[in-house]
Structure formats: structure tokens, C-alpha cells
Amino acid sequence: MQPWSMKFAGRVEEHVVASAALRGNPLGDPHERPLWVHLPPGYDDQPDRRYPVVYEIQGLTGQLDMWRNRPAFRRNFPELVDELFSSGGAPPAIVVYVDCWTSLGGSQFLDSPGTGNYLTYLCDEVVPFVDARYRTLAAREHRGIQGKSSGGYGAMVVPMLRPDLWGGLASHAGDALFEACYLPEFREAARALRDEYEGSFERFWRDFRSRPAFSKKSDGALLNQWCMAACYSADPDGTVRLPFDPVTGGLVPEVWARWLERDPVRMVAAHADALRSMRAIYVDAGTRDDFYLDLGAEAFRRELERIGVTDVFFELFDATHAGIEHRYPIGLRHLVERLSS
């Protein structure tokens, strides 16, 4: 394997989407976003053929060009996608790489007065943009969504919130079971705010943006908790409400309840019909996941079982939260096989 490139059998076309949904967003983030469309080998050879589509969304702090980052001695994900299709490992499909980055780190692919209208952007702007320009099978039965971590969260909740558009999902170590993955960080964030920032998130952000990102141990917990609060518990005027007391780390029950309403595990019962209608559901996580998202994956699977959804690809495998890009082609193959017919 050459360490710097591989020759694609298909191709990736790059676009910029000017979004009305993101224009004037509360963070002042760009409303023009890059979008990549990965066409399978043979796309040009059969001009009458149409293809299922899988949308790829990223984890917290992800921006589109990171898909081309290469782990040592391993292929990056676009290369793995091209290899999957060129080898005949899966039926051909169109793969779309979506950018929903924010200056807080992410959007959780939701509409929020704290970050912007990213669910609307994805569903009502990106999907029609792709369907208008490419030979897609433009129906929910042939459209899936896939992601890891916060992207895995989006892959679980976006089809529940917009079942009119999505027929399949693949979640790799997606944020779920919030008391296991988020709540333990509340105490870390409170201690860091006290010791380093006089209890002020404003001071944290001013410091964070004045130096190399993540150069302090506490950066991850503080960024994560504020970003999640901006996504899950911002008031209509954009005021971000924390689910914990920044002095003690104690829960603020009424705000924590707003977070739990967005927990995929707790959303299942209210969106049972949408989930029962899915043609493909794939869920996995590493058994040593740093954020205990293996527990969330199992909890999500059990809730699916409780509503009668048993046709689920589910696997826990030996890994942490990092370095699991080799799992993405497995999820992609499962989606494409189910969404092609």
C-alpha cells in the first residue's frame, strides 16, 4: 500500500451548498458548507441506473476534510468506501459526506437555538441537493445515514425525527444512555471550572481560543458539556442552560430532563412506528469504549427489542472509542444491501 494515495475506481465530486437554514445561525458559523459525493465505479457506464444513497456524518469536532486523514498503515474512510465497491463487497451506492461542524465542536444534527438548524439543513437542503443532481433512488426506502460517536447519535435520532426521509441507519459508538456517557463528566467540568476559570464557561472559551486546542487536560470535558448543552438545552433566545451546577456538579433536574428527552434510548418508545418501518438498523461499539457507549448501544438495542424491532445488526467488539474506522465499511455494506432492493 502506498502511504500517500490510492487510485480510486469511483470518484468523489466536491460541492458547496449555500444554506438558507444555516444563514444567520447564532454562532456566526459559515452558512456555505462543503459537501462531497462519492460515486461508485461504473456510475457513468449505465446512465439509466439509479442508486441507493448513504449519508455520512461525523463525530464531535469533525469537519469534512478530516475524512481524508489517514491512520498509520491504514486506509482512510473514502478509500475504504471505494475499495468496498470496487471489490464487489457491496452493491454499488452513492455515499455523501456531510459537514455539520460548529465553532462549539458540533451540532448533534439537531435544530437548536444555541447552534443553528442542522437537522433542517441535512434533511431539507442536503438531501434535495443530492437527489436533484445525481441518479439516486429518491425514496426513504433507499436512503440511509451512518456515523460514529456524535455522528452515531445523529444516525440514531435523525431517522426518528424525520422518518419521511430515512429507511436505514448505522450507528458506531453513538452517544446514548446519557447517564452513562455524559453525566460522569459533570463533576470533571465543575472542578475544572472552579480550579481554572473561576466558575465561568466564558473564561474557558476565551482561554481555549487563545491557544492550541486541547492543550489542557480539561478541554475535552468542558467543550463537550457546553456543546451538548447548546444542542440539547438552549432556550428559544439562545441562552444555554447547563444540566449541572457549575460549582458543585450537582444535577439541575429540569435541565437534565431536557437532555434525557434527546437520549436515543429514551426516544425509542415515542418513535416506535418510525423504527419499525426501518429497512436496516446497524449498531456497534467497542467493549472498552472510553465513554461507555457500548452500554448505550446495548440499551438502545434492548429498547428496540421492547418495541418489537429484532431485525438489528448488533455487535460489541474489542476496541476503545478510537481507531474503529475499519468498522464503517461493515455498517455501510449492511445498509446498502438492505436499501438496494
Describe this structure as you would to a colleague:
The structure is a single chain. This protein has 2 domains: 11-176 and 264-339, Rossmann fold, CATH 3.40.50; 179-260, no CATH class. The chain is 36% helix and 16% strand. It has 12 helices and 10 strands. The protein has helices spanning 77-86, 118-133, 150-161, 178-181, 183-197, 201-208, 219-232, 253-260, 264-267, 272-276, 293-306, 328-339; strands at residues 11-18, 32-39, 53-57, 94-98, 111-112, 116-117, 143-148, 168-172, 280-286, 313-317. Helix 3 (150-161) links the parallel strand 7 (143-148) and strand 8. Helix 1 (77-86) packs across helix 12 and helix 6 (201-208) packs across helix 7. The mean pLDDT is 97.
Count of folded domains: 2
Work out the helix count.
Answer: 12
CATH superfamily of the largest domain, called what? Alpha/Beta hydrolase fold, catalytic domain
Quantity of strands, as a count: 10
Question: Strand pairing plus helix content: what structural class?
Answer: alpha/beta
Estimate the mean pLDDT confidence: 97
Cα Rg: 20 Å
Largest sheet: 8 strands, mixed
* 3D shape: globular
Distance, first to last CA: 34 Å
